[in-house]
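Notes from the 1:1 (GR / supervisor)

We went over the backlog. Supervisor wanted to see one worked example end to end before approving the batch request, so GR pasted a single chain during the call. The sequence is below; no edits were made to it. Supervisor asked that the structure be written out right there so they could see what the output format looks like.
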Amino acid sequence: MTGRHPLPMTAAAGGHTPVMLREVAAALAPRDGAIYVDGTLGGGGYATRLLDTAACRVVGIDRDPVAVKRAAALVRRYAGRLSVIAGRYGDMDRLLDAQGIETVDGVVLDLGVSSMQIDDPERGFSFRADGPLDMRMEAQGGPSAADVVNEMPEKDLAGLIHRYGEERRARAVARAIVAARAQSRIERTLQLGDIVRKAVAHGAKGRAGIDPATRTFQALRIYVNDELGELQRGLRAIERVLAPGGRLAVVAFHSLEDRIVKTFLRERGGARARGPRHLPDTADGARREPTFELLFKGVCRPGRAECEANPRARSARLRAARRTAAQAWPADHTPAGGAR
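Structure output shown during the call:
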């Protein structure tokens, strides 16, 4: 899959390089007069590409107040064409409705944590630099990672680390955390990183090149920000706001996210259906028309050159689909996945 507009890949505001920029632009096929949503605005890389490619309008959404503040320069650059909303993409339909927008022609999501968040030690996302053990994407967005590791029961903590971090040594890690917090509260990223590394080191060796603390930090970040639940809500909101023919592009970085996206698109695409009309079976007997059709089979992955230039791209997986004219499925129908 190649981009329709082969512009050079550039870093967005704040030094963040958007992953699979050409592929995402090709999937969305931006056109003049259309309205697009960047549901995870971050540094604005995807929004910028869309605005530079066509005479369109882009609405950026981000739950991180730092990202929203930094986007002010882009809003000025693309005056009248780019607007930014502080909020969660899971509330996309409500947020757009407040702006007087009923439907849009395309949506892009870049899941997970951004480079800007990781690179700021004060945000507490990284174990590579010392900082407060926070990990919240929003200011005052509920319990911090420090609250979780210091207050959650050992059994629940082990389950969290195993489920969201896919850490085989989750029980040992949780046991080590509980033992450490009995001595003093765990407040710093380097402090937690050391605890996790020692716990994992007593078991089988981890994957080459992967820091033993990676999976535990990932698990905490996902839990603290309810990222998988947000993804499920976001996909349902996107189903409601996309106009017929509108396009969705989702870039995921690990199996938990990708599985939710894959399952949603398979369900909404009628892959589980039986019968000549390709309609999925439902508990209430209602006939549900497919609301999405895949733009390509499976996933699109970044090329070797991009992976070498941007290591973050190595685990990226792009899925894309086109909205049909069918009515959105009921809000109470939840796709299979891993919301907490």
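Supervisor's comment: The CA atoms of residues 273 and 279 lie 5 Å apart.
Batch request approved.
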